[in-house]
Amino acid sequence: MTKRGMEGMDMQTYLQSNGHDNNNQDAKRIKMDGKVGKPSKVIHIRNIPNEVTEAEIIHLGIPFGRVTNVLVLKGKNQAFLEMEEESAAVAMVNYFTNCVAQLRDRSVYVQFSTHTQLKTDQTHSNASASAQAALQAAQALVGVSEGKEVTGGPNTVLRVIVEHMVYPVTLDVIHQIFSRVGKVMKIVTFTKNNTFQALIQYPDVITAQAAKLSLDGQNIYNACCTLRIEYSKLSNLNVKFNNDKSRDYTNPSLPTGDPTLDIGQTSTALATQSLTGTAGMLGSPFAAAMGLNSLTAAQFGLPGLGLPGLGYHFPGAQALAQAGVRLPGMGGGSGCVLLVSNLNETETEPDHLFILFGVYGDVQRVKILFNRKDYALIQMSEPQQAMLAITNLDKVKIHGKPIRVMHSKHTTVQLPKEGQAEAGLTKDYTNNSLHRFKKPGSKNYQNIYPPSSTLHLSNIPASVEEADLRAAFKAINIEVQAFRFFPKDRKMALAQLSSVEDAVISLIKLHNYQLSETSHLRVSFSKSTM
Q1: Could you write out the three-class secondary structure of 362-388?
Q2: pTM of whole model > 0.85?
Q3: DSSP at 109
Q4: Which stretches within 180-284 are classed as H helix?
Q5: Strands lying side by side in the sheet with 157-163
Q6: What angle do CA 170, 241, 257 make, to 5 degrees?
Q7: What ranges in 99-148 are assigned the alpha helix state H?
Q8: Which tens digit of pLDDT belongs to each residue from 158-212?
Q9: What are phi and psi of 57, to 5 degrees?
Q10: Which ranges of 236-338 does DSSP label H, i.e. alpha helix?
Q11: Angle 52-56-61 (CA atoms, 0-180°, nearest 5)?
């Protein structure tokens, strides 16, 4: 049936003749009256995906004005949208004539209907309920709710509040999520009333509308870190610095505001998503640390955000292989156990591997192989942590040898039986107090960086001076090239070493080094330079 023929027939007859009279999925009996051949408040949308919802159809019209009615004919891949004002419909058709509309990665075609009004018969209450709920939400979205204007109308700038923030949320996490909807121009983050908030600027109102409709109420991580989104009163963000609090993506040459910051140095790990039906957009806070924007979900044939109940987790090796993606050291598995090779047999101990790999996750067990002491198995808490360790530690030089890190075929590290000769080479760290990520909301989630020649030192008591810390490094035969306490917090300091290898050895040997009766040094790799 042609488009014109379908529009010209009585819609009730159409539904009945196609077996929809008793089917609540499409059952809405309407008749359409009007004139042909000129602009209309009713818009005809073709080539829609089968699974599209009323809300998604309505979202196309929201930027142009108030939507008063909607009809989705899924069996015919068509929909009708009625605007309150004809001028809004004209603006919508004009816009999508020059810019093809997209629904679930599918091009849809927007044009005037040959009719001027959608008259709805509410006989099928179940079918109309979803449409009415979507319409009510849409009317609230454009600033109309029970006849009262809502502060902050449609705008290019969104204000985001993160509720139930069990895990830390950073500017980069916000960018990873919101850039899935469209190009993000600027972000400013801040804390107000003890809640993390962000202002996000898009290039146009339509993209901002799409982000608000798609992401409002979504969880960043499973069952926590809920996004609450509203329009900002601001029409433009004035970003002066590119750092971990604010970013202007249109002007990468802005200063950081702090000479020690180097925002270009980030982990290059991969964390794309697979659909699991859970409630979080990032399955684990480690996924955020691994750079979600390094590969888009489209490369794996996955739809974009905007579906309720989407959960993102790290893909298995099979999914990565099918996508043609290979990471350094990727072996045959994708679980929590790593195989580490080319170790220095005489220098390496289980505790050393626990400390080093513990920078990227909570190490549960370490086993140095009895017959091949240049090999070890390391069990992490989560697959994301294992992949993070591969990305950051493969080919890193330790005790003069570049180690290789890859997934093991084993799913767990077995503890030896009591009395076996290899007992000293296998250790269980499950309940170890030095786990960096056991506490939800730990700041360590925000400070995961590749090995570098600059170390971040923390938990320094007031009684300890620079000379004391330099002496601790000298005791392990490493010279500190430069040292500086943080000017606003003397409990922390930066130590510049001559090489990444020296920094790795220093971290292994000085993390948890006793500085006083009650204080132990904390050491991590820094993103800063000196």
Answers
A1: CEEEEEECCCCCCCEEEEECCHHHHHH
A2: no
A3: E
A4: 205-215
A5: 246-248, 186-192, 195-201, 157-163, 224-231, 219-221, 280-282
A6: 100
A7: 125-141
A8: 999 998 887 778 898 899 899 888 889 999 999 888 789 999 999 888 788 888 8
A9: -65, -45
A10: 285-289, 317-322
A11: 135
